[in-house]
From TrEMBL:
<feature type="binding site">
    <location>
        <position position="35"/>
    </location>
    <ligand>
        <name>NADP(+)</name>
    </ligand>
</feature>
<dbReference type="Pfam" id="PF05173">
    <property type="entry name" value="DapB_C"/>
</dbReference>
<comment type="similarity">
    <text>Belongs to the DapB family.</text>
</comment>
<feature type="active site" description="Proton donor/acceptor">
    <location>
        <position position="141"/>
    </location>
</feature>
<dbReference type="GO" id="GO:0050661">
    <property type="term" value="F:NADP binding"/>
</dbReference>
<dbReference type="GO" id="GO:0051287">
    <property type="term" value="F:NAD binding"/>
</dbReference>
<dbReference type="InterPro" id="IPR022663">
    <property type="entry name" value="DapB_C"/>
</dbReference>
<dbReference type="GO" id="GO:0008839">
    <property type="term" value="F:4-hydroxy-tetrahydrodipicolinate reductase"/>
</dbReference>
<dbReference type="GO" id="GO:0009089">
    <property type="term" value="P:lysine biosynthetic process via diaminopimelate"/>
</dbReference>
<dbReference type="InterPro" id="IPR036291">
    <property type="entry name" value="NAD(P)-bd_dom_sf"/>
</dbReference>
<feature type="domain" description="Dihydrodipicolinate reductase C-terminal">
    <location>
        <begin position="114"/>
        <end position="247"/>
    </location>
</feature>
<comment type="subunit">
    <text>Homotetramer.</text>
</comment>
<keyword id="KW-0560">Oxidoreductase</keyword>
<keyword id="KW-0963">Cytoplasm</keyword>
<keyword id="KW-0521">NADP</keyword>
<feature type="binding site">
    <location>
        <position position="142"/>
    </location>
    <ligand>
        <name>(S)-2,3,4,5-tetrahydrodipicolinate</name>
    </ligand>
</feature>
<comment type="function">
    <text>Catalyzes the conversion of 4-hydroxy-tetrahydrodipicolinate (HTPA) to tetrahydrodipicolinate.</text>
</comment>
Length: 251
């Protein structure tokens, strides 16, 4: 049985992980960490360093500013970490990179298998269409999401740039623009509203035709399931930084 500590345990995703783990005999949540220490069915702490329970992995669905402290505490405890939190700054990413030299860290802005398949499809399309098609990304999320654009939209854009001969420059919205779109742009647009779980559309707009490749999350459980699979994967890995690509490759 894999013993889990949930960082962000009182959040929307923390509650999903708790539910899915309770339904799966392979997992047991032994403790939670959150700045909101409202009691749950397991001990809740405000800082990982104070957790007394023995664990095998930390799963993080929290807020970007909380991640460096989490990673440093995981380092002290020699605990593998699954990082799902998005909106991380360059400085926060550097802390993760540094820690991954000593502990295995799994990081993905999107833990769903579907989005990672979408990324493979989009990379193939971008290779073929890069000359004559303008590429734009539209992401849509619920009205409680704090970061924009989504980490998934940025992950998709970065994946596209990996395969292009000439890298695109990201343009976040076009408010105040008073000029024509330049061919080297990749527009990224964020829609917020209601309870939208997470939708991503990649638009290839050409002359007289448009190709759209999209993914729509119907429930947060797809992210929770992926995070649990990532936890099962990461506890057997050597120190390093791992992604969904490593998990999908493993099969
Ligand atoms: N990689 C993926 O597949 C997915 C990633 N996410 C990301 O996960 C994060 C959390 O998403 P939600 O659960 O919807 O958000 P949420 O706001 O419902 O939950 C975040 C939790 O973290 C806690 N928190 C905030 N600041 C903290 C701090 N400094 N120290 C400790 N705890 C702190 C909050 O009290 C809250 O309980 C977001 O960055 C979101 O983009 C969300 C879904 C899927
Ligand atoms: O905040 C969310 O809800 C989500 N955030 C992630 C992101 O920023 O890409 C993943 C998913 O789309 C849900």
């Amino acid at each position: 049985m894999i013993r889990i500590i949930i960082h962000g345990c009182n959040g929307k995703m923390g509650k999903v992980i708790t539910k899915l783990a309770a339904e799966n005999p392979d997992f047991k949540v032994v403790a939670g960490v959150d700045k909101n220490t409202s009691p749950l069915d397991f001990p809740v702490y405000s800082d990982l360093k104070d957790v007394k329970e023995e664990a095998d992995v930390v799963i993080d669905f929290s807020y970007h500013e909380a991640v460096p402290n989490l990673v440093k505490a995981a380092l002290q405890k020699k605990l593998p970490v699954v990082i799902a939190t998005t909106g991380l700054s360059e400085e926060e990413l550097k802390v993760i990179e540094e820690a991954s030299k000593e502990i295995p860290i799994f990081k993905s802005a999107n833990m769903s298998l579907g989005v990672n398949i979408l990324i493979n499809l989009v990379k193939e399309a971008a290779k073929i269409l890069q000359q004559d098609f303008d590429i734009e990304i539209i992401e849509k999320h619920h009205n409680m999401k704090k970061d924009a654009p989504s980490g998934t939209a940025l992950m998709i854009a970065d994946s596209i740039n990996q395969v292009l001969n000439d890298k695109k420059e990201y343009v976040y919205g076009r408010h105040t623009k008073t000029e024509q779109r330049k061919p080297n742009e990749l527009g990224i647009h964020a829609v917020r509203g209601g309870t939208i779980v997470g939708e991503h559309q990649v638009i290839f707009a050409g002359h007289d035709e448009v190709i759209t490749i999209s993914h729509s999350a119907q429930s947060r459980e797809i992210f929770g399931y992926g995070a649990l699979q990532a936890a099962k994967f990461i506890i057997n890995q050597k120190p390093g930084l791992y992604t969904m690509e490593d998990l999908v490759k493993k099969g």
